[in-house]
Design a protein that fits this description.
CATH class of one domain: Mainly Beta
Number of strands: 51
Largest sheet: 6 strands, antiparallel
Radius of gyration: 36 Å
Strand content: 35-45%
Distance between the termini: 36 Å
CATH architecture of one domain: Sandwich
Helix content: under 10%
Shape: elongated
Number of helices: 4
CATH topology of one domain: Jelly Rolls
Structural class: mainly beta
Length: 759
């Protein structure tokens, strides 16, 4: 028999299809792609706070089981710093107090976060009120809506240096780095009331005991005052008011908050009608409504005279137009005196140009200097006025798609396009040349089922989770010449996709690890919450998986370190965590610290650090084919050495999983010459000894002595386990197989074998 060698020096990702190439893998767990073209052990995650801080200390014991972080958001008050804002299942809205990850020496007892406050100083502490036996119910805090376990938390976007948040239940809010306010206004102002005063000169009203106000608009200008003047050229040189002519006006008022956002207009006042007489000026004195504490100014709007010069009432088309009159720059003045003639009023306005920020919206995006909202019960998209994120004109509505496409399930905004996802459809919104918006249908075959899975992945496209797997949308983000494509990215990992629990998939979470060039999507498996990471290595176009990630929500920090921060859905590992290559355990609590159980209140036991070990298994190699027999002799594993950490191997012959190489067949990652051994990882100090260069090594595993059966299929698994004290450090870059081949079969084409009359 002849000995031949199969060399595979470019390993790729998981491929669970029936027929694969030699570089494909059946299993890649707890490993990441390295730019040196190999697979190495992945890092883990750890708390962003101090290990001994008890996240459940203030949570009632009955609620420990379901405690989780429900949403998490990154916010930059300045371009160089990210704040982490998060919500809990207690209805709390908080800000992390630490400025860097695991970096500040806080005492164990110090809270690593603080509750955000509203404009009245009330904390979002999850406590709506306390009951005082003497005075009754006294508000002492605020509580946010808590979504169900299979739902999503609050969604957010940044606009104008502020963070806007919606959740479909609570009022929309905006955070400016200091306080939380309601976005927009909850109600329109009350109807203004008015009456007419008559005087011959501008200060007659005050001289007769009237109230002086900064907003007295009578002036020494003879033409000021309300009513109809005699036209130019009339015999009366002073152009006095036309005696006996009826005049009438109506008013509206709006509220303005500190961000310059305006409420919808009030109902029009009753018609204020008077008769011109004696050549005297008429002034309207208005009683103004007062707004809530968020109001810092009010704006007045007025019609022009509702009667023509002949005393005939004007029609509604022209007579009921309202024009800007004056801004009252406080929320205290109750009296306003109007004597501005019709020729001096401001710009025309319309009720349809105003509207409140919708309450029942689940999704939010910033696009073309506007805020877009979706996910309300009426299943439409609403958008704000340009530059006014809290003002939503009544006609700014897009009824996207049709009812067959299902509910809106997410949005994503690029520079030139806004993508609207439905359960069974994808639609693209863009802006016309006249400033209006339109949409077109991309597909009605595939949609998104997990809003938090949507991410724009480098070198890939817009990735999202659908009913059919993980898909990517290409060719749309920046008005390229490339046609829009919808491609199933998860075909090679179909078995893992089929394990996703469909009833909980809505809460799946996607994020991008730019350090390792990965898109990670955490999905729920059957009977479990989010726990399985499907990892797309976008630089090489390959999949791997990682286990036991309790990710309920996640956000990427756009800093030099580009960390992923995620909130936990597991009460045994409560809090907020950071993913990092340097963490070798998943939640390193207990790995390197002596713990005192008495230091944790209200807990029966401490969470322990968990560890899943790196595994790489090649896809089954088809060996029979053209040869009468194949006998595998050796597997040569091409690695990069990281000290004295052993690697173990299992083999499969003809898909028999019982064939395992004995433990003493594990191989250390060292040269045979002891004098050239590297310093051991985790045993050498940087200031006293230097790590040797990571170097390629070949580790040979003898298979022939262990199995002498004819092989039609062959695969192997390399791994580390808990018998390795310093495990989690190895890298595989390729392999070769030495096999003995029998005689080559006489294989002829089927057309040559069959007779002409045979099929």
């Amino acid at each position: 028999m002849n000995t031949k060698r199969l060399v595979v020096d470019r390993l790729r990702g998981i491929d669970q299809r029936y027929y694969t190439k030699p570089e494909a893998a059946a299993i890649i767990e707890e490993m990441t792609w390295d730019s040196y073209d190999g697979w190495k052990a992945a890092g883990g995650f750890d708390l962003v706070t101090q290990d001994l801080y008890d996240w459940l200390s203030d949570v009632p014991p009955i609620q420990h089981k379901n405690y989780r972080i429900t949403s998490i958001h990154a916010f930059s008050k300045r371009s160089r710093f990210n704040e982490i804002i998060f919500e809990t299942s207690q209805g709390q809205l908080c800000r992390l107090k630490i400025g860097n990850i695991k970096g500040m020496p806080l005492p164990v007892s110090a809270d690593p976060f603080e509750f955000l406050k509203d404009e009245q100083g009330l904390e979002y502490n999850g406590k709506s009120f306390t009951t005082d036996p003497t005075t009754g119910a006294i508000t002492n805090g605020r509580k946010r809506y808590v979504p169900k376990i299979n739902s999503i938390g609050s969604q957010s976007c940044s606009f104008g240096g502020r963070l806007f948040m919606v959740n479909g239940v609570d009022e929309p809010i905006v955070y400016d780095g200091y306080k939380v306010s309601r976005a927009g206004f909850s109600e329109r102002p009350a109807q203004p009331k008015g009456n007419v005063v008559v005087r011959a000169f501008h200060n007659e009203y005050i001289a007769n005991g009237g109230e002086e106000t900064d907003y007295f608009l009578g002036t020494r200008i003879r033409t000021h005052g309300l009513g109809s003047l005699k036209p130019k050229g009339a015999r009366n040189i002073n152009r006095s008011f036309i005696d006996g002519k009826l005049c009438s006006y109506q008013y509206k008022v709006s509220f303005v908050n500190e961000r310059g956002q305006e409420s919808e207009l009030s109902e029009a006042s009753e018609m204020i009608t008077f008769e011109c007489a004696d050549g005297k000026r008429r002034f309207v004195v208005l009683n103004l409504p007062i707004g809530d504490p968020t109001v810092v100014a009010r704006r007045l709007y007025r019609t022009r005279d509702l009667f023509d010069d002949f005393g005939n009432p004007l029609g509604p088309e022209t007579g009921r137009n309202f024009f800007f009159l004056r801004e009252i720059q406080d929320n205290e003045t109750t009296i306003f005196e109007d004597g501005i003639p019709d020729s001096n009023v401001g710009a025309l306005t319309d009720d349809v140009d105003f509207g409140p920020m919708p309450v029942q919206s689940k999704f939010i995006a910033s696009f073309k200097n506007r805020i877009f909202l979706a996910g309300s019960p009426d299943n439409v998209v609403r958008y704000s006025a340009s530059g006014m994120p809290e003002v939503f004109p009544k006609l700014n509505i897009l009824d996207v798609g049709d009812k067959d496409s299902g509910e809106i399930t997410g949005m994503y905004a690029s520079t030139n396009n806004l993508v609207i996802f439905k359960e069974f459809g994808i639609f693209l919104v863009n802006q016309r040349s006249d400033g209006s918006f339109e949409y077109r249908t991309i597909t009605k075959d595939v949609g998104c089922i997990a809003p938090n899975s949507i991410r724009d992945v480098p070198f890939t496209g817009l990735v999202f989770l659908s009913h059919k797997g993980v898909f990517v949308m290409k060719g749309f983000l920046e008005d390229s010449n490339e046609a829009t494509q919808i491609v199933n990215l998860s075909t090679p990992i179909k078995e893992h996709v089929e394990r996703i629990c469909s009833s909980l998939a809505y809460g799946s979470v996607g994020c991008i690890d730019r350090n390792n060039k990965e898109y990670l999507i955490c999905v729920p498996t059957i009977g479990e919450k989010n726990n399985l990471l499907l990892v797309w290595h976008y630089e090489v176009g390959a999949w791997s998986i990682r286990k036991n990630y309790p990710m309920s929500c996640a956000v990427e920090l756009r800093t030099a370190d580009s960390e992923i921060i995620f909130g936990s859905n597991d009460a045994s590992q409560p809090g907020i965590f950071v993913i990092n290559n340097f963490y070798r355990y998943k939640n390193e609590l207990g790995a390197d610290v002596e713990l005192d159980i008495n230091s944790r209140k209200d807990r029966e036991e401490l969470p322990k650090a968990t560890k899943d070990y790196p595994v790489y298994e090649i896809a089954p190699l088809k060996l029979n084919g053209a040869y009468s027999g194949v006998y595998v002799a050796y597997v040569n594993l091409y690695c990069v050495a990281f000290g004295d950490e052993p690697i173990k191997m299992n083999i499969k012959i003809n898909r028999n999983e019982s064939l395992v190489l004995e433990e003493n067949k594990s191989r250390a990652q060292q040269h045979t010459d002891n004098s050239e051994k590297q310093d051991l990882y985790n045993e050498s100090r940087f200031n006293s000894s230097t790590f040797g260069y990571h170097r390629p090594v070949v580790i040979r595993f003898d298979v022939s002595h262990f199995h002498k059966t004819l092989a039609t299929e062959f695969s192997f698994r390399v791994f580390q386990d808990d018998t390795n004290e310093a495990a989690n450090r190895f890298m595989i870059v390729g392999y070769s197989i030495d096999a003995k081949f029998g005689e080559q079969n006489d294989v002829r084409a089927l057309t040559d074998v069959l007779a002409p009359n045979q099929r």
